[in-house]
Amino acid sequence: MAEVSRKELILLIASVPHVGCGKSDHLIRLAGVDLSDLDLSGLNLAQADLAGANLRGCNLTDANLAAAELSSADLTDAVLRGVYAEGATLLDAKLVRVDFRESERNCFYGTHLGGASFDGADLTDARLCGARLSGARFCEAVLCRADFTGARVDKHTLFTNADMTGAIVDALDWTGPALVTRTLAAEYDPGDAPIKPQWSRLKLAV
Fold it and tell me: Do the Cβ atoms of 181 and 165 come closer than 8 Å?
């Protein structure tokens, strides 16, 4: 059960002074706090310290998580549709079955995960359809059966040593070659669905 209510969290956010761009201070400190199953939709959690927090089943639709610290947080079954998480850190976070699709309100014109770090994170069955992943890192991440349909990647998007077994990459929006491993390319069979030959356009990391 969550340790705080949505109302208490809103009051906490309201008590924090405005954090200007470029600031690295985490003024909202919720590291290790149990926030499971809370409705956190639309809240401004930019630069919040949520490391190790329990966010299982949370509704974070249209929330602002820019530069937030979410390392080792548990977001299993959380809904992050339309979230703005530019520069967020999610090292070793658990994001099984997380929904990153565009929200109905579309407050931020799509789901922004540019520059976010998912190194070592578990994104099994995650839905990243249409997400903006420019500069995002998925090194050593588990992306089994993750759905990247329509997601936008560029030459700075890293998948080095990621496990993408069964990942769906149909209709990826390539704005530049992403980096993957030779192992991934070597194991790829053009006849295996749902993976498509877009992998041939990737630059292989040595």
Answer: no
Phi then psi dihedrals of residue 89, to 5 deg: -115, 120
Give the model's pLDDT for residue 1. 75
pLDDT digits (tens, 9 = 90+) for 39-81: 999 999 999 999 999 999 999 999 999 999 999 999 999 999 9
- Could you tell me the end-to-end alpha-carbon distance of the chain, in angstroms, rounded to an integer? 46
Considering the domain 1-206, what is its CATH architecture? 3 Solenoid (2.160)
Neighbouring-strand partners of residue 205:
181
* Whether 121 contacts 141, CB under 8 Å: yes
CA distance 89 to 73: 10
**How far, rounded to the nearest angstrom, does the alpha carbon of residue 78 sit from its chain's CA centroid?**
11
As to burial, measured by CB atoms within 10 angstroms (0-12 exposed, 13-18 middle, 19+ buried), residue 125 is middle
Chain CA centroid to CA 24, Å: 20
Nearest to 89 by CA among 66, 108, 61: 66
